[in-house]
Structure formats: structure tokens, C-alpha cells
Write a structure and sequence with these properties.
It is a single chain. By secondary structure, the protein is mostly helical. It has 18 helices and no strands. The longest helix is centred in the middle third of the chain and has 38 residues. The radius of gyration is 22 Å and the shape is globular. It starts with a helix and ends in a 16-residue tail after the last helix.
């Protein structure tokens, strides 16, 4: 009992981690709820709409992911500057991520005219291609706030101030759900826009978060704690250092998302029912993934601060505490996946009862895959959070690139294209991929090399 009490109250203990992580967990859960309801509404609208939203949304996020992954690495810079008591570096770091957002926006707009050809290349039915193209092109209008908000959130999370992130995401989720209800179905006199309405709702949520962060950062208490607006000048040396570490984080995120995109695009070749079932399974999986991601982010923040302070041993304790929290949660949820799958599946009803019966049978089996790989995903998110917090992004990048290509993308491509592999063979390779990530990052963590890393230069600890 005394050991548990000490683990709870000690520096880097359960209490400190929960204070930082709970808002991030709830924030991640609001994002999950947003996507869950968004796609649930689209399922009610049409099976083609829900299948298209997942593939088009994931494809764009694959292109976007490099910039989001790089921009979000500001949280590690902020955490280490915060731990080293160098508040001037906080605002400067965040601005480098915003400059990157401009580059990302230009890049995504360059894909706008050609996206229809990408979907046609994967032999999707023309009705699906039409929906996919509409959804992708409409999402382009929310690209800048999506990337910039990833950088702005680092200002708060890196300092351990995660309540603003929770509030921003909660407000954005409410706006998204209301607009989904109004614009997808044309309720209360609004036009019936279907999948376009869903994209407008998502874009609105991105703009909400972006402007909410700017509003808070303009307040006196935040200006005093770590000035932001006065640090707007481009800093070449800091940008190069930010890009050096953030690039590895961005490229691994991009390759990982590319793997998931190709995974779904290839499943689309198997059939609409297989694609719809996979989309539903992924949405249900988010209920376990997003809270674990929140814990992983919390671990990353504390580890970054500990590295900045020169106390990596406290970060190690935090990592194991994060593992305890995630394991407790995932055990309960995966039990529901296995024993009560209909609890979630019934929310995704389809108009075509014959199609729904087949999709439902698929999803029941896919949730068994989800339950299996979720335990390894827990290891992946927790230990990679520690490695990122320390700055070990190049190693993470190399592992994810190698596994994405040789365990996920190539095997599934060969299976579907040349060996008539079905839905379950694709999910087997996905499960293997996630499992290997968890094991490898655990071994890297145990090696301890991360304890000697940092992303900031010449820390000046002030006592």
C-alpha cells in the first residue's frame, strides 16, 4: 500500500502524469467522438459516403501528416525549454511550426486537381470515386489551421498546461457535431449536403481550435509566462534544429499514415462491404487508441521536461506509470470488443439490411484483431512517447519506415494484387505490424540511449 501511495505522489508519479494526461485523454476522446459521430451520420446517409470518407480523409491526412507530425514536435522543444527555464525559446519554437504550416498548405493545394486520378488508379467504383474526390477537395480548405494548431498546441502541452487543449477540442467537437447534423442531412432548413457537409463541419472545427489558441495566448498570464506574439521573427538556426528533429517525426508519421491509407485503398479493391467494415472497425478502435495516445503524449511531455532539467530517471518512472494507466483501460475495453461487439456495431446501421448483415459479421471478426493488437499498441504509444520526448526521433522514423514498407505495405499489396488475399489476410499483416512496433520500441527504451539525448542547445538551468 505504501509503495502504491509513493508511486502516486512522487515526482513523475501517477498523480503528475494524470494531471497532464487526463485533459489530453479527454481531448483525444473528443476527437474520437467527433470522428465516430461524423462517420456514424455518414453511415446513416449512405454506405458509399462512409466508405469514401475514410479513404479520402486518410489519403489527405497522409499527405498532411508530414507537416502535422513535424509541427507537433514543437511540444518537445517547448517541454525541454520549459524544463531548462528558458521561456524565450518557447514562443520562438512554436513560430517555426507555423512557418511550416504555410509550406504544408501550399503542398496540399497542389494535390487538389489530381486527387480523382489517385482514386481511379486503385480501381474504386465510380460512385465511390465521386464521393472521395468531393470530400478530399473540400477538406483542403481546412489545411492551414489543422497544421498550425498542431504547433500552437505544443505551446500549452509542452508546459504541462493541457486544460486549454481540452477546452479547445471540446468546443470544436460540439461545433462539428451540430454542423454534421445540420449539413449532412439538411435538418432545420439547411441544405442537404451529405459528404460535403461533413467536410465543412470538420474544417470549422479546425478553425475553431486555431483561433481559440490564439485568443488564449494573447491573454496577459500567458504573455507573462512565455511570450508568443513578440517572438514572431523567423529564426534560421532554431528552424534548422527544429526541422532536424521534427523532420524525422514528420516523415515517420507520414510513412505510417501512408501505410494505413494504402491498407484501406487496397481493401477498397476487395469490395464495398469489406471497406465499410474496416472503416467501422477503425472507428471503434479509436475508442481505445485515442485515450492511449493521450497518455503517451503526457509521458512525452514529462520526459521532455525531465530531459531539460537533466533528470531522465524521473522520466523513466513516468513511462512505467503511463503503462499502468493504459493497461488498466485497454483491458476493460478489449474485453467489450471480444465479448460484446454488438454494443458498438449496432450504432453503425446501414439502409441495406442485406449489406448490413455481411458488414456486421465482418466487423465482429475484425474487432478480434483490434483487441489483439491493442495491447501491443499500448507498448508502442507509451515507449515511443518517451523516445520522442527525449529526441530519439530518427530511430523511431527508421523503424516505422522499414516496418511500414516490409511488413504492412508490400505484403498487403502482394496479397491483394497477386494472390487474391481477402480482408482477413490484410488485417493479419496490420496486427503483425503494430505488434512489432510495440516490441521494438520497448527494447529501445530498455537500452537507455534516450536518457542522454536532448533537442535544445546549451541548457541554462536556473534554481
Amino acid at each position: 500500500m505504501d509503495g502504491l501511495k509513493r508511486r502516486y505522489y512522487e515526482k513523475g508519479g501517477l498523480k503528475e502524469l494524470l494531471i497532464i494526461s487526463i485533459p489530453l485523454i479527454i481531448s483525444s476522446s473528443t476527437t474520437t467522438l467527433q470522428h465516430f459521430i461524423d462517420r456514424m451520420f455518414l453511415t446513416w446517409y449512405s454506405s458509399e459516403a462512409i466508405a469514401s470518407a475514410m479513404t479520402a480523409g486518410l489519403l489527405q491526412f497522409t499527405f498532411l501528416s508530414f507537416f502535422v507530425g513535424t509541427a507537433s514536435y514543437t511540444s518537445t522543444f517547448v517541454a525541454q525549454y520549459y524544463g531548462a527555464r528558458e521561456k524565450e525559446g518557447i514562443g520562438k519554437s512554436v513560430w517555426q511550426g507555423i512557418y511550416l504550416a504555410f509550406l504544408g498548405t501550399i503542398f496540399i493545394y497542389l494535390t487538389y486537381p489530381f486527387v480523382e486520378n489517385i482514386f481511379i488508379l486503385f480501381d474504386h467504383p465510380l460512385t465511390i470515386v465521386k464521393y472521395e474526390t468531393q470530400y478530399y477537395q473540400m477538406l483542403c480548405f481546412g489545411v492551414f489551421p489543422a497544421i498550425a494548431s498542431s504547433s500552437l498546441s505544443g505551446y500549452f502541452s509542452g508546459q504541462g498546461k493541457t486544460i486549454p487543449i481540452l477546452i479547445a477540442n471540446a468546443i470544436a467537437t460540439i461545433i462539428n457535431i451540430v454542423l454534421d447534423y445540420l449539413l449532412i442531412f439538411g435538418n432545420l432548413g439547411f441544405p442537404r449536403m451529405g459528404i460535403k457537409g461533413a467536410a465543412i463541419a470538420i474544417n470549422s472545427s479546425f478553425f475553431t481550435i486555431f483561433f481559440f489558441y490564439l485568443f488564449l495566448m494573447a491573454q496577459k498570464k500567458y504573455r507573462k509566462r512565455a511570450p508568443f506574439f513578440s517572438q514572431w521573427r523567423f529564426d534560421k538556426e532554431l528552424f534548422n534544429r527544429f526541422f532536424k528533429f521534427g523532420f524525422a517525426s514528420g516523415i515517420q508519421f507520414c510513412i505510417e499514415m501512408m501505410g494505413y491509407s494504402i491498407f484501406l485503398l487496397l481493401i477498397g479493391k476487395i469490395g464495398t462491404e469489406a471497406l465499410t467494415a474496416s472503416t467501422i472497425a477503425f472507428n471503434i478502435n479509436n475508442l481505445s487508441f485515442m485515450p492511449m495516445l493521450g497518455v503517451g503524449l503526457g509521458v512525452s511531455v514529462i520526459v521532455g521536461q525531465c530531459i531539460g532539467e537533466g533528470k531522465p530517471e524521473i522520466g523513466e518512472k513516468t513511462t512505467y506509470n503511463g503503462l499502468i494507466i493504459s493497461l488498466s483501460y485497454i483491458t476493460i475495453l478489449c474485453s467489450i470488443y471480444l465479448f460484446f461487439p454488438s454494443f458498438f456495431i449496432s450504432l453503425f446501421r446501414l439502409e441495406n439490411s442485406e449489406s448490413y448483415a455481411l458488414v456486421k459479421n465482418y466487423v465482429v471478426i475484425l474487432l478480434r484483431f483490434v483487441a489483439c493488437y491493442s495491447f501491443f499498441d499500448m507498448l508502442n504509444l507509451t515507449f515511443s512517447g518517451t523516445l520522442k520526448g527525449a529526441g530519439d526521433t530518427r530511430y523511431i522514423s527508421k523503424i516505422i519506415i522499414c516496418l511500414s514498407i516490409f511488413v504492412l505495405i508490400l505484403p498487403i499489396t502482394l496479397s491483394v494484387t497477386f494472390f487474391n488475399g481477402g480482408l482477413f489476410s490484410c488485417w493479419f499483416f496490420l496486427t503483425l505490424y503494430v505488434s512489432l512496433l510495440g516490441v521494438i520500441f520497448f527494447l529501445r527504451f530498455k537500452g537507455g540511449k534516450w536518457k542522454k539525448m536532448r533537442v535544445i542547445d546549451k541548457p541554462k538551468i536556473r534554481h
